[in-house]
Fold this protein.
Amino acid sequence: MKTLGLIGGTGPESTIDYYRLLTAQYREKADGNSPPVIINSINLKSMIELMAANDLGRVTDILVEAFEKLRRAGVDFAALTANTAHIVFEEVQQRCSLPLISIVEATCERAQALGFKTVGLFGTRYTMQAPFYPKVFSRTNVKLVMPNAEEQEFIHDKYFNELLKDVFLPETRTALLAIADEMKTRDGIEGLILGGTELPLLLRAGEHNGIRLLDTTRIHVDRLIDEMLR
């Protein structure tokens, strides 16, 4: 049995969702036992400020130290409970003494397993514009497409001004699904990656208008549970 370490707090609601899902699935697969998990919750406000300033070096330093605290606490492996923070995942992984499991790689593996040829990506501006998702998908035959510039701006605005503030509005859900419909028509997407762990808190259905919604939180949790039970 392995102990999992999580970097949480980015944002708090999705961290809660991780713990809830981990506990439920682990109990189901481990005869009612609870999962050995240690969470290090970091400061969302400072991380947002550093990302906005493009100070990725400092973001990396903070995450490396956060993972080192988890190592000293006795975890066997660890993960980030956010997509955007994966913008520095490779740098953190190189400097961290813990094995880390990437939400991006887990999601890419799921898209391949489902046989998709084209998938879209929703997330923060940083996630949609940075190369970390395209880099992973470029190693496969799954085409990854982004919303257009106007759509990206809308999604990012709703993410930061609503979802990260625990505001989940039906009109925002409707608008985001309309963008998904447009991407299906324009780009032929078969699946849509909810590449922000707050997005599944708003878009809870697994499918919309023939588009499979890929909940990166659940996909990541599945992968983490597999590792814990090895």
Notes: The longest strand covers residues 4-8.
